[in-house]
Please model this.
Amino acid sequence: MTQENQNPNPEQENVEQAQADNAEAATPKTPEQEIAELNQQLTEMQDNYLRAKAEGENIRRRAVEDIAKAHKFAIESFAEHLVPVTDSLYAALGTDAGDAKAFKEGLEITLKQLISAFEKGRMTEINPAVGDKFDPHHHQAIASVPSEQDPNTVVSVLQRGYTVADRVLRPALVTVSAPK
Model:
């Protein structure tokens, strides 16, 4: 035997397979067979559509629930940091401190606890120094007073302001110097 008879040409094998597939495909189907195949495909597509629609609805519902929980419990972490401050205030009110100096020291310690709780909650204080440039995004001018300072600078701070995560919660109330 020759080499060619033992190993047939792979290209010829592929051609023969393609011809067999074409002959099978060329076999005419009856209209009933075609309708049955199309109905089966339609049923599969409807099932896939309904499954995809249900999955989308489940994802939407879970997202709505997650957002509701996030809104409901967003303050929880911040509140946990405030509880020790409240404990300190109750302890101060429960004592009969006749010494004003000791009472003031206790208040200062409680204020430090409160500032620490604010920092943990990403809340920062807006307390401009005298002479700082007036910033309408962080300050609210209550009055304009004549002053030796440059115009539109802070003369005094009436009330400190606060930001939460770089968003102004309350602007600082200030008086500003009037133009000369």
Notes: The two ends are 116 Å apart (CA to CA). The chain has five helices and six strands. The helical segments are 3-6, 10-26, 31-73, 76-94, 100-120.
